[in-house]
Amino acid sequence: MILRIAVDLDAVLGDLVTPILEKINPEYGLNLQYSDIDEWEFCINDMNISKEIAKYLKNPQFVLNLPVWPGALEAMIHLSKQHHVTIATSRPKETENESFRWCAERFSFHKFQNFNGNSKKSLEADILIDDYVRNIDDFVRFDEKNRKSILFQQPWNQKHDEIADLINKNKVICCKSWDEVLFEIENLNF
Fold first, then answer.
1. Average of per-residue pLDDT across 57-72
2. In the predicted model, what is the mean pLDDT of residues 29-53?
3. How far is CA 66 from CA 62, 79, 116, 122, 140, in A?
4. Cα-Cα-Cα-Cα dihedral sign, residues 134, 5, 52, 30
5. Domains and CATH numbers, the chain
6. What is the DSSP track for 75-132?
7. What does the pLDDT look like over 164-175, one tens digit per residue?
8. What is the DSSP letter of 31?
9. Who contacts 64 (Cβ-Cβ below 8 Å, separation ≥6)?
C-alpha cells in the first residue's frame, strides 16, 4: 500500500537545537545541553529557546547549514521509494527558499509544503512524523478515523498527556530514532 507520509523538518530531518545552543550558550553565558531543553518554551533569565529559534530561522546562512538528523538521509530514500513523501514545515516566509534548497540538496521527497506557523491538520497525508505534540494532536484529531502519526521523541515532547488517548488507541506512535520510525511504518495497519 502506498501511503502519503508527511515529515516535519526541524528536529526530525534537521538538528535545529544543537546549532542554536552553540550560538546562545556564549551569548547568554549558559552551558545548556540538548537534553536540558525539556519544553518548547524553555526559558532561563531573559532567554526563551523558541524565540531564539524563530530569530535564527530567519537567517539564510543558518538555515542552509543545519546538520542532518542521524538516520534521516537513509530513511527518506527508503520512504520515498515506497510512498509519497511530503516535507511539511512551519518555517518563516523569509527563508522558505533556503529551507526548500536545504531539503532538495539532501533528501528524496515528492513535495515540499510550508505552513508558515499554521497548523498542519489540513495536510493531505495518512501519516505525520513530527516532534511537536500540538501538530500531532491537530493532525490526528482532524480525521481520527483515517490518520496516524509518529511522535519523533525529543526532550521537549516527553510530556504528552494531551495525546495519551491517541497513543492508547494506536493513532500516535512514539519513536526515538529513524530506525524505529521505519519499523513502525512497515508494521502499521490501516
1. 97
2. 91
3. 7, 22, 19, 27, 29
4. positive
5. 4-14+67-186 (3.40.50.1000), 17-56 (no CATH)
6. HHHHHHHHSEEEEEE---GGGHHHHHHHHHTT---SEEEE-TTS-STT---SEEEES-
7. 999 999 999 999
8. -
9. 98, 101, 102
Which helix (DSSP H) or strand (DSSP E) does residue 19 occupy?
helix 17-28
Instruction: Give which of 44, 59, 42, 131 is closest to 89, Cα–Cα.
Output: 131
Q: Is the pLDDT of residue 190 over 70?
A: no
Asked if residue 152 lies in contact with residue 8, where contact means CB atoms within 8 angstroms, the answer is yes
pLDDT tens-place string over residues 111-160: 999 998 778 999 999 999 999 999 999 999 998 788 999 999 999 999 98
Tell me what the mean pLDDT of segment 14-41 comes to: 94
Contact 92, 116 (CB under 8 A): yes
Do residues 89 and 57 touch, judged by C-beta distance below 8 A? Answer: no
For residue 105, give the C-alpha cell.
540538496
* Cβ-contact 44, 50 below 8 angstroms: no
